[in-house]
Amino acid sequence: MGVAAIAAGGGLDEAFRHEALFYSGEREFVRRMSSFIRQGLAVGEPVLVLVIAPKIELLRAELGRDSDRVMFGDMSEIGRNPGRIIPVWSEFVAGYANGGGRVRGVGEPTWATRNAEELVEWQRHEALINLAFTGAPAWVLCPYDVETLDPAVIDEAFRSHPIVSSGETGGTSPNYAGLGAIDRPFADPLHEPDGASEPMTIEIGSLSQMRGLVADRAADFGLPPMRVEDLVLAVNEVATNSLRHGAGEVSLRHWSQGGDLIFEVADGGRISGPLVGRQRPSIGGNSGYGLWMANQLCDLVQLRSFETGSVVRLRMTRR
């Protein structure tokens, strides 16, 4: 794993620093993260740490009283859907990077038990951070455990982070894809599912019928009542958004995959904003709420835009 050296006066002085840190095992994680946190506290930088709950406890134990000066969040809850994370960082930066000061954060993006679809969306999230926070006075450090993660995940981290570090060596990533690879419609293919239902054509007059279908399928699948309501609302928001702003026919289909129930809304329109659904809609605005709402309600949202149209897949896990 080669890491290029940082030129004097280079990456460390840029306004927004997005860095992947490669570590091996819990002991190195605690040592490196606690050092990063304490360095920030020592210079008066507010610190937000988003990692899974067991690692929060490890860091609290290591930091002692210093942990009282750190904001923590359980990534397994906050980041169950990667589409929710940029808004969390946005609120942190907006709330604490005032007066020209910098903030810093730790966000562990993935772990070994993530499934394939989640990994893809997490990798997309990591790339989009660079676009969302261009010029922001923040340093976000993303730890990756090389002992447990697939090498392909590590390779992707080199492409989505301008800065990488391993051991005591850090520098610019030789494989960083840059903003030019981010600010474009999402056109990565999605796998064709097994056992999908026949597409149902959606029109304004059939939204009530569609909501009934979603509710029935979700209940039959075993989702609890509150989760059924959340899924119905999410599908309705996305379908309504497609009817208002999309083009061509709007269709709905559904299928199950293990413990997940998936609904897909498709239309003939194109989506040009890569951060759609990942930024809180402005108060009083009349657009942007559908995908935002879906990200808040669902366990995973996959958005793609092709020459032939766009699709949104909404996933809810039975738990």
Strand order of the largest sheet: 3-2-4-5-1-6-7
The oligomerization state is single chain
CATH architecture of the largest domain: 3-Layer(aba) Sandwich
Alpha plus pi helix count: 9
In CATH, the homologous superfamily of the largest domain goes by the name P-loop containing nucleotide triphosphate hydrolases
| Biggest sheet statistics | 7 strands, mixed
Q: What's the number of domains?
A: 2
- In whole angstroms, how far apart are the ends? 39 Å
Taking all Cα atoms into account, the compactness measure Rg is: 21 Å
Order of helices and strands: EHEHEHHEHEHEEEHHEEHEE
Poorly predicted regions: 1-13
Number of strands: 12
Name some characteristics of this structure.
five-stranded antiparallel beta sheet, Heat Shock Protein 90, disordered N terminus, seven-stranded mixed beta sheet, 9 helices, 37% helix, alpha/beta, 2 domains, elongated, Rossmann fold, 319 residues
